[in-house]
Amino acid sequence: MFARAASALLALALVPAPALAAKVIVVNGDPPGVGFNDPTPATPIGGNPGMTVGQQALNVFQAAADVWGSRLVSVQPILVISFFTPLPCDATSGVLGAAGANWYFANIDPATGGKPLASDTWYPAALAEKITRQDIVADPADPFEVFSLFNSELGKPGCLQSRAWYYGLDNNQPANGIDLLAVVLHEFGHGLGFSVGPTNSNRGERALGFPSVWESQMLDTTTGKRWIDMTDAERAASARNNLNLVWAGRKASNVVPSTLDFGLVVNVLEPAAVDPGEAFPAAFGPPVGPGSLRAPVVSPDDGGGVSPLDGCEPFAPDGSIVGSIVLMDRGTCGFTTKVKNAQDAGAVAAIIANNAPGIVLMAGTDLSVVIPSVSVMQEFGAALRAALADGTVLANLRKNTRVRAGTVFNFPRLYAPTAFAGGSSVSHWDTSATPNMLMEPFITPNLTSSVKNPDDLSWSLLRDIGW
Ligand SMILES: [Ca+2]
Ligand SMILES: [Ca+2]
Ligand SMILES: [Ca+2]
Ligand SMILES: [Zn+2]
Hints:
Layout: E1 24-28, H1 53-71, E2 78-85, E3 97-101, E4 104-105, E5 123-124, H2 125-132, E6 146-151, E7 164-166, E8 177-179, H3 180-192, E9 218-220, H4 232-238, E10 245-247, H5 250-259, E11 262-270, E12 277-281, E13 293-298, E14 325-329, H6 335-344, E15 349-353, E16 373-376, H7 378-390, E17 394-404, E18 407-408, E19 411-412, H8 458-464
Parallel strand pairs: 1-2, 2-6, 7-8, 13-14, 14-15, 15-16
Antiparallel strand pairs: 3-6, 4-5, 9-10, 11-12, 11-17, 12-16, 13-17, 18-19
């Protein structure tokens, strides 16, 4: 994800037009035979009537453009140059797409009927044109407000070869399909302004010394400072302050209760000295129910393998686990294997402690899992083990009706893992948001085509920056 920072430009006056839904125009940047011009015959699928792969791709992009266009208001058309091109990829993981504002503008005077931009502040091109109500041309040969790239190699040998783009418009992709519509909606979101912009979030440095329009709404909940008030070093540290960097904009915060589920918490009842731990639901098995699941926590020895605490081997069927919440470490085997081993020994729930910093979300499918399971952070797992070493631990696993998943102080978290991830850190929602949001850094299977609450938070963030 990269974008140019243009230097400040002077404005052109234009005749104002009435406020309308924005027109988002997809510009096909592909050469003959590739991507949008791929002539390979295709069968209509999922509401997409295209008869070639290229036509189906164009239809998906236009659908994404229409979703965003119907939500945003601007008298200026938004030109999105789009390409299918090889992006970094291997057999099991890869970059699906990348996008950004094609230009950032600062200090543009408004046209008639327009409004001024905050001074000395970078705005993504489409938003700058919306607010100032004019076409801002930095380079007549490159008039696009948004650029976007999509991986042309997906599904080919060596690039996520077991997967394929799904061209339907109904979010109904098969298990191996990647919903192109969701990916395009996500990438267009970046291009329209879901990005910290020209501020370098790795080093905290600003382009030409100006903050981006994001910085006044980015709050570090550890220091209580906003990015706009930080030094470069403080911003770089905040970009790595896992779970403690939030979007403090009012519009996004207002729709948190209607959009995000309650968070999960492990409350330790005995011993009282252990603080509660945030918990993250597994993708398999039943959800944690509405009531409290109260039980002793145990950490039984599984008798073998790489570690006796990893739950990868079946537990002895001696009845000692029956009715308990089983604590296991992440690693060595799949999450469903661990939870199934606990279930088979009579556990009522399972807690998997991460073996690395940050959050792990437990993926997997196993319809025979009938007990709820959650992951917790490494530190909390260590606190539980320390308490177990001293004696009995009694806990309840429940929804936290005071905290929405993926928020602090009701502000949604931005993705800020301890190990900075270029292209992912800062300019996404944190993965702890539940249900999964469109603008999380990794695609998830159950996204809708809505960018608005109560399905999604991305439109509300864009409203916070002036859309
Ligand atoms: Ca323009
Ligand atoms: Ca083991
Ligand atoms: Ca999530
Ligand atoms: Zn992204």
